[in-house]
Automatic annotation (TrEMBL), chain B:
Organism encoding this protein: uncultured Arthrobacter sp
Pfam families referenced in this protein's UniProt entry, alphabetically: PaaB (PF06243)
Alphabetical keyword list: Oxidoreductase
Region Disordered, residue ranges: 1-23
Protein name, entry field: 1,2-phenylacetyl-CoA epoxidase, subunit B
Enzyme Commission code: 1.14.13.149
């Protein structure tokens, strides 16, 4: 339910009682709902995380939509269109969840357009071949699922509920990507090479989707104490590596990382060093496609202005018509 | 500035306040979906739309892409009256101490079949 918070803030009694109930709910691993009292930092942190997640879904439509006309068959075009439509849906579920915290959706859109808000760095890499669409489904959506499944239990009710819906739909995305790669892997040598090349380029960026290493991740501890995050970045990354290390065998291809191995002592999967300088560069807006993605998003927003205006004008006119009909009667 | 991880855990701070919205925002609607005949409509989420017709169409596209429903309700969010969360105790306290409203309160008949 996207209703603004009704709880009165600022009065010491209300804040103390609110904090106490909030703490109890977190200890019980229960859920916080929109109209509950919550610490300002919790509201702010969730607004940032959920809106950033929503922006990622919306920007994520671009690299794939670019391939709809070039998808190799009618079936693949239909599948890709369904996937892009899902990404739009995921963005909207998440904007709704974020709105329950008090920030209007239009404000979040403005922040994205103005370049003030962030989205996942992964969408700033170019999608060069059809095999990249497969690698994105398998690795990028795979990493996203790994991240998102624990978020279904996030302490903020609307976020968890949005994630449940999203996770159900994401598994189709990952499987369709894997199937694209499997078909290429069973094709000609040139197709196998194309699939391997796509995996080589998407492997490291998809691992970096889990965020910086634990010792360089300032929000993690607080986020885990609030039961928003359930596992650390490195923990999830290691799990993901374990999954894809097995899955890549079914493709008969390989991961571009000679250091991937299961450490029997720690019970964890290990991987080679990642280029966190590159991650920071992309974050800072200097990735290969940052400017292009932002420009396209702005353009789409501006080109859609007349539609939004026309729809609002029509709604106004209908409402006025209904009002004068009531008066006449 | 763009970038960041999907978890939102990249050390960034919340977005700063942007310019004020000039266009009147579209109203918010709550969406309820009946997943099959014989079941109630259940709250699925919310969306923005300029009017009821568009809200219904958007709800279909947004919440029933995979045969999730046979019927939809859209309700202006502003029309929903909710109980006050901070008045929870007073408002919901009446069943307290009234265990006799539950079948499990009556334990003497244990062992008697079909009761």
């Amino acid at each position: 339910m996207a209703a603004p918070a009704a709880t009165q803030y600022g009065s010491p009694d209300v804040d103390a009682a609110g904090q106490q109930l909030f703490d109890e709910l977190i200890i019980q691993d229960s859920r916080i709902e929109p109209r509950d009292w919550m610490p300002e930092a919790y509201r702010k942190s969730l607004t940032r995380q959920i809106s950033q997640h929503a922006h990622s879904e919306i920007i994520g439509m671009q690299p794939e939509a670019n391939w709809i006309t070039r998808a190799p068959s009618l079936k693949r075009k239909a599948i890709l269109m369904a996937k892009v439509q899902d990404e739009a849906g995921h963005g909207l579920y998440l904007y709704s969840a974020a709105e329950t915290l008090g920030t209007p959706r239009d404000k979040m859109t403005e922040d994205l357009i103005a370049g003030k808000a962030r989205y996942s760095s992964i969408f700033n890499y170019p999608v060069l071949t059809w095999a990249d669409i497969g690698a994105i489904g398998w690795l990028v959506d795979g990493a996203a699922i790994c991240n998102q499944v624990p978020l279904c239990r996030a302490s903020y009710g609307p976020y968890g509920r949005a994630m449940v819906r999203i996770c159900k739909e994401e598994s189709f995305h990952q499987r369709q990507g894997f199937e694209i790669l499997l078909e290429l892997a069973n094709g000609t040598q040139a197709q196998r090479d194309m699939a391997q090349d796509a995996i080589n380029r998407w492997y490291a960026p998809s691992l970096m989707m889990f965020g910086p290493p634990d010792d360089d991740s300032p929000n993690s501890n607080q986020s885990m104490a609030w039961n928003i995050k359930r596992f650390s970045n490195d923990e999830l990354r290691s799990r993901f590596v374990g999954m894809i290390a097995e899955q890549v065998k079914a493709l008969g291809l390989s991961l571009p990382d000679p250091d991937v191995r299961f450490n029997e002592d720690t019970g964890k999967w290990e991987y080679g060093p990642l280029d966190w300088e590159e991650f920071k560069e992309v974050l800072a807006g200097r990735g290969p496609c940052n400017a292009q993605r932002m420009e396209r998003r702005r353009e789409a927003h501006e080109d859609g202005a007349w539609v939004r205006e026309a729809a609002a004008a029509y709604a106004d006119k209908q409402a006025r018509g209904a009002a004068s009909a009531t008066e006449a009667a | 500035m763009t970038g960041g991880s999907t978890t939102g855990d990249d050390g960034s701070t919340a977005p700063a306040a942007g310019p004020a919205e000039k266009r009147q925002p579209w109203p918010l609607w709550e969406v309820f979906v009946r997943s099959s005949r014989g079941l109630s409509h259940v709250h699925a989420g919310s969306l923005h739309a300029p009017d009821a017709d568009m809200a219904l169409r958007n709800a279909r596209d947004l919440y029933t892409r995979r045969n999730e429903g046979v019927s939809l309700w859209v309700v202006p969010s502003s029309a929903i009256i909710t109980s006050d969360p901070s008045a929870k105790e007073q408002f919901f306290e009446s069943p307290q101490g009234k265990d006799y409203r539950h079948a499990t309160y009556y334990s003497k008949s244990e062992g008697v079949k079909h009761l």
